[in-house]
Amino acid sequence: MQLNSLNDLFVEQLRDLYSAETQLVEALPKMASAASHDELRQAFEHHLDETRGHVDRLREIFEQLGTTPGSETCEAMKGLIEEGEEVVKAQGDAAVKDAALIAAAQRVEHYEIAGYGTVRTFADDLDLGDARDLLDQTLDEEGSADKLLTKLATGGMLKAGLNERAK
Ligand SMILES: [Fe+2]
Fold this sequence. Notes:
By secondary structure, the chain is mostly helical. The protein has helices at residues 6-34, 38-65, 75-89, 94-125, 129-154, 157-166.
């Protein structure tokens, strides 16, 4: 990895995010089918649509920069998804499994929020307003996805499911 300028670092970080997003496009359908609660499944399906849009926005930025997404693998996202897949394959109580899916998904969202916060700032520093606007839109959607997961986790959905089974 050659990091001679902020622009080099910007491109490197964008490539990392591109790998993360494309891995997530593969993983989210599995998370959606593993979810028992309708609202959780819908949240994963909705975020899958958004995630495809995140991939498109990154492609647009690579084009604007006259470069390509490259072929690097985001090892951190690979690890987070592996942990998610352990939950997908897990046996047991449906509501507990939903809680575990939310826990895995929020780790993913927080990772992305950190990544997009960084590249948005770099785009600003580099006076790349168009890229910054695109990254801002994605950052907003990652934030909303995270908030929705919190709402589902704390809004009584899990508690209701768990208490139902405890009877
Ligand atoms: Fe995303």
